[in-house]
Amino acid sequence: MDNKKILSKAFTASLPVLMGYTTMGMAAGILLSGTIQRSDIVLWAFLSSLTSISGALQFAIVDWIDNRIPLLDVALLTCFLNVRYAMYGLSLLEKFSGISFWKKCYLIWSLTDETYALETESREDDKKSTLRYCLAVAAFDHSYWVIGVTIGAVAGKFLPFSTRGIDFAMTALFLVVLTDQCKDRRNIYPAVIGVLSAVAGRIFFSTSNMLIPAMILMTAVFIIFRKKLEKLFIDAEVSK
User: Fold this and answer.
1) Using one digit for the tens of pLDDT, what is the confidence trace for 151-200?
2) Which of 11, 112, 156, 165 is deepest in the core (most CB within 10 A)?
3) Residues 116 and 135 sit within 8 Å (Cβ to Cβ)
C-alpha cells in the first residue's frame, strides 16, 4: 500500500480520537492558563502537550505546579499513572520489530490508550505498511492533543472566564469509561480494588498525600492476588 493510502486510512481511523483529544485537550489548556498566570503560558501549554501526551498527567500537572509538589512525588505519580503502557508495549514487541531506533522510540513514547487500540486493530498487507500505518496514527493522535491544548490555552488567556469544574472533565471521562467497562462482570473486581485502595489511602493520609499510597496498595494487591483474580476472570468468562 502506498503512503497516500496509508495516511488516508490512518486519518480516517483516527477521527474519533480527533474529537476526543481536541475536546479534552482544550479543557486541559483552559485549566492550565486559568490556574497558572504567566504571560508565556500559551508557549508552555504548547511545549507541555508536545512533550507529554498523557491526558491524565496534563490535568494533574496543573495542580502539581500550583501546589509546588516535590519532584520525587511527581516522578512517582507519573510512573503509577502511566505504568499500564508498559503492559501495552509487551503486546507490540513483534509489531514494532525491525524498525529504526528513532521511529521505535516515537512509537513507544506516543503510545496512548486510543493509539494502542488503533494500532492493535491494524490489518495491513505487509509489515512495512503496518509500521507506516502505526506511525501515521501516532502522529495524527499526537497532533490532535497538541492542537487541543494550545487552542484551550489561547482561549483561557484571551477569553477569561471561570475555570471552576473544568478539572473534573478527565475524572468524568474515566467514570464514563469505568461504568461501561463494569458492564462486564470480570472488570468489577479491579474496580472494587481500586475504590477500596483509594478509600484506605484517604483514611490514613491527607487528601493531598493519599494518591501514591493508594496506588502502591492497589498495585500490591494486584500482584499478591494475581492468580486468584485470574481464576475469577476465567470463571466469569465461562459463566457468560
Assistant:
1) 999 988 887 766 677 767 767 767 776 776 677 767 788 888 888 998 99
2) 156
3) no
